[in-house]
C-alpha cells in the first residue's frame, strides 16, 4: 500500500478525513492542512475523481533528515529517479515549508531539480527539461523541522478547479470550500436548496453535483498521474465509466440560485451547462428585496459580501440587516446558513445563530452561521 497525503484548506481536515474514509482510504490521519492515508493505485485514482474537499493528492516517495542544502542534495540523490522519470518527460518541483538553513522555497526547489537532473546525466547521459505549467512529473518537497518529505503530485492542477467554471463573479468561492460548507451543514438532497446571493452559482452547482452523485473530477481535462511512467489509463477509464453510470437522473428536491446581477446569472447558467446540470438547477435574476421562499421548508445558503473584496464602499450593514429581515419574515420553517468573514456585519443580521462553524476562505478566518427560522 502506498502512503498518500491530501492537502486541504485549514480547518477542514476532520471533514476531509471522513470523506476519504467513505472513499475507501486506510489508516486515515488528519494533520495540519491535510490528511495522511494509505491505499492502492485504484484508491489514488478514485480519490482524484471523487473527493470534493482536497486540493491535491500527494504520493509519498521518501523522507529523510535534512538540515542543509548538502543533505537535501544527497537525500534526493538516494532516490532512483529512473523509476519515475525519463529524459523525454518534463518535470517541475514545488517546495513548501522551511528550516533554519533551508528558508527559501525557490532555492530548495532549485537544489532538488539540480540533484535529479545531475543523477540523470550521470546514469543516462541526458536530462529532463523543466516545465512549470503542465509538467509530466510534478515533484512536491516539504521541509519541516529538519526533515524533508518527497512526494509526487498525482492531481496536476488543484482539484478545487473542477473545470466546469470558466465564468466566475468578482469574489468567487472555491468549489472545494462550497462543497465543504454543504457537507458541514448536513444538508440532504431530499431538502430544497436555495442560494439568494448565488453569484456565478458555485454553491447551487456543488449541491447539484452532490445530489446527482456526479464525480467532480469528471470535468477535468487531465490528472497529474496520467503522465506517470506506471499510469494505468485503462483503470482510469474504467473508474470514469463507473462514475458516469452511477449518476442519478433527477434531483430529489429543487435546487435554486438567484442574484440581482443578470450578468452573473448568465455566468451561472454557463457554468451549469458546463457541468451538465442546467436542466436540473434553476437560476434567476432576483433582487434580495424581492426574494421569497419558494417552498414551505428547505435549506438556504448564502455567502454575502463581507468587505474584503466586494462592496467595500457600500453600506454593507444595511445589506446584512435586509438579509436578516428577509430571512425572518419570508423563510419561516427553513434553516439558513450564512458564511461571513466579518463579525460586526454578521451581527447586523439581527438573528441568533443556533450553531457556528469556523472555516477559512483562503487565508481569511470566517464563520458559517446556522439559523433555525421559526
TrEMBL record:
InterPro entries: DNA_methylase_N6_adenine_CS, RlmKL-like_Mtase, RlmKL-like_Mtase_CS, RlmL_1st, SAM-dependent_MTases_sf, THUMP_dom. Gene3D superfamilies: 3.30.2130.30, Vaccinia Virus protein VP39 (3.40.50.150). Coiled coil: none annotated. CDD domains: THUMP_AdoMetMT. Residues 43-154 form the THUMP domain. One of its GO terms (molecular function) is rRNA (guanine-N2-)-methyltransferase activity. Transmembrane segments: none annotated. This is RNA methyltransferase.
Amino acid at each position: 500500500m502506498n502512503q498518500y497525503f491530501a492537502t486541504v484548506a485549514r480547518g477542514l481536515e476532520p471533514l476531509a478525513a471522513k470523506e476519504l474514509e467513505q472513499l475507501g482510504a486506510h489508516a486515515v490521519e488528519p494533520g495540519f492542512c491535510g490528511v495522511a492515508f494509505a491505499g492502492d493505485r485504484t484508491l489514488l485514482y478514485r480519490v482524484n475523481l471523487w473527493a470534493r474537499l482536497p486540493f491535491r493528492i500527494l504520493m509519498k516517495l521518501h523522507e529523510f533528515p535534512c538540515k542543509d542544502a548538502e543533505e537535501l542534495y544527497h537525500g534526493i540523490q538516494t532516490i532512483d529517479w529512473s523509476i519515475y522519470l525519463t529524459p523525454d518527460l518534463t518535470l517541475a518541483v514545488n517546495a513548501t515549508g522551511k528550516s533554519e538553513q533551508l528558508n527559501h522555497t525557490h532555492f530548495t526547489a532549485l537544489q532538488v531539480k539540480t540533484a535529479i537532473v545531475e543523477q540523470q546525466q550521470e546514469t543516462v547521459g541526458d536530462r529532463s527539461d523543466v516545465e512549470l505549467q503542465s509538467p509530466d512529473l510534478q515533484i512536491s518537497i516539504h521541509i519541516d523541522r529538519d526533515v524533508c518529505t518527497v512526494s509526487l503530485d498525482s492531481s496536476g492542477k488543484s482539484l478545487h478547479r473542477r473545470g466546469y467554471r470558466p465564468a466566475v463573479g468578482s469574489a468567487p468561492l472555491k468549489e472545494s470550500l462550497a462543497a465543504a460548507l454543504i457537507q458541514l451543514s448536513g444538508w440532504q438532497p431530499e431538502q430544497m436548496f436555495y442560494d439568494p446571493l448565488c453569484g456565478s452559482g458555485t454553491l447551487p452547482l456543488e449541491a447539484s453535483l452532490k445530489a446527482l452523485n456526479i464525480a467532480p473530477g469528471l470535468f477535468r481535462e487531465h490528472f497529474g498521474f496520467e503522465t506517470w511512467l506506471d499510469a494505468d489509463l485503462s483503470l482510469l477509464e474504467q473508474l470514469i465509466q463507473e462514475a458516469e453510470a452511477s449518476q442519478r437522473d433527477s434531483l430529489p428536491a429543487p435546487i435554486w440560485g438567484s442574484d440581482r446581477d443578470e450578468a452573473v446569472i448568465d455566468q451561472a447558467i454557463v457554468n451549469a451547462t458546463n457541468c451538465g446540470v442546467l436542466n436540473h438547477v434553476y437560476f434567476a435574476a432576483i433582487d434580495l428585496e424581492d426574494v421569497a421562499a419558494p417552498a414551505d421548508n428547505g435549506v438556504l445558503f448564502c455567502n454575502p459580501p463581507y468587505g474584503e473584496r466586494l462592496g467595500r464602499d457600500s453600506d454593507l450593514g444595511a445589506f446584512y440587516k435586509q438579509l436578516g429581515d428577509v430571512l425572518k419574515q419570508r423563510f419561516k420553517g427553513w434553516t439558513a446558513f450564512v458564511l461571513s468573514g466579518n463579525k460586526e456585519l454578521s451581527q447586523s443580521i439581527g438573528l441568533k445563530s443556533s450553531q457556528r462553524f469556523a472555516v477559512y476562505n483562503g487565508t481569511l478566518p470566517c464563520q458559517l452561521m446556522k439559523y433555525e427560522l421559526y
